[in-house]
Amino acid sequence: MATTLFLSLKPLVSSFPSTTTPNTTYQLSLTHTKSQTLPKIPLASFKYDNNTPECPVPLDQQPINEYQVLCNSFPFSWASSDVVEYSSRLFVMGACFAVFVGLPVSWFGSIGPKSEPIRLVLGAASAGLFVVIFAVVRMYLGWAYVGNRLLSATVEYEETGWYDGQIWVKTAEVLARDRLLGSFSVKPILGRLKNTLVFLGTSLLYILVINSEITQKLAFIQPEEPGGRAVAGAYNDESARNFEPEAFCGGDSIGP
User: Fold this and answer.
1) Strand 25-35 with 2-12, pairing
2) CA–CA distance from 204 to each of 62, 125, 128, 131, 155 (Å)?
3) Residue 251 region, left (φ>0) first, then alpha (ψ -120 to 50), else beta?
4) Alpha carbon separation from 118 to 58, 87, 225 (Å, rounded)
5) What is the pTM of this model?
6) Each residue of 157-173: pLDDT tens digit?
7) Cα 134 to Cα 128: distance, rounded to the nearest angstrom
8) Which of 193, 159, 179 lies closest to 75, judged by CA?
9) Do 33 and 22 contact (CB within 8 A), yes or no?
10) Which of 179, 72, 103, 87 is closest to 136 using CA atoms?
11) Which of 30, 66, 132, 183 could form a disulfide with 94 if both were Cys (CB 3.0 to 4.6 A apart)?
């Protein structure tokens, strides 16, 4: 069971009387709950208006809004869900691709599909793993991009197009808020995706090694087919007589 951290910013107002406006500070309260989900931080107190002079970044280019879009988009939202949902979605995607795409390709691309069922299964599993690895890499790149923008002290944005790029330096409050969100929400997601890539890459390498060993074993086996049937990669006089009888019309031997 993972431990979820719900963080909130609560204002602390000094109890001492003052004639001036009291300075407002913030404390960080942590609430520990048992859950399988990754740490999530409420975003209600994180929103800020881009119309204020201190934040000229457009709404769709603000890191916090990019984080919200990523949490609700496909397939990036899978990485922020609980372990069971995350694993089941990846498994279903890989299994569907392996059955409906990888298995037919392996069947029609092999020489003897009925005599090599293990190679068919390995080929289909490799295709499913390739698709899952591609999806996880795509999720990792998206979350890494948003995480870097949250943890960075500056924000690169475009006012109207690619030709007028600007850089805005975050204020102390915005920087603290973005780094809090990036450290407790994005970094655990990136860690999960890294572990997934290591597991998938190891599984794919293991399947390729097994397939290579099976191919080498089949190469050393001398195929024998009844009735003089030609076998790919093998030559004998009996099969040659069936396909080129004119070469053997003078006798039993090929020579003069």
Assistant:
1) antiparallel
2) 38, 8, 10, 11, 38
3) left
4) 55, 25, 21
5) 0.67
6) 988 777 778 899 999 99
7) 10
8) 193
9) no
10) 87
11) 132
For residue 236, the model assigns a pLDDT of 66
Condensed to tens digits (0 to 9), the pLDDT of residues 124-161 reads 999 999 999 999 999 999 999 999 999 999 999 988 77
Q: CA-CA distance, 41 to 67, in Å (whole number)?
A: 12
Amino acid at 95: A
At 35, list the tokens.
């859950």
Residue with tokens 């991009």: 145
Q: Go through 170-182 and write b for each residue having 16 or more CB atoms within 10 A of its CB, e for each that does not.
A: beeebbebbebbb
**CA–CA separation, 211 and 118 (whole Å):** 9
DSSP the chain: -EEEEEEEEEEE--SS--SSPPPPEEEEEEEEEEESSPP----TTT---TTSTT--S-GGGSHHHHHHHHHTSTTGGGGGS-HHHHHHHHHHHHHHHIIIIIHHHHHHHSS-TTT-HHHHHHHHHHHHHHHHHHHHHHHHHHHHHHHHHHHSSEEEEESSSGGGEEEEEPPHHHHHHHHHHIIIIIHHHHHHHHHHHHHHHHHHHHHHHHHHHHHHHHHHS----GGG---TT---HHHHHHH-GGGGTT-SSS--
pLDDT band at 242 (very low <50, low <70, confident <90, very high): confident
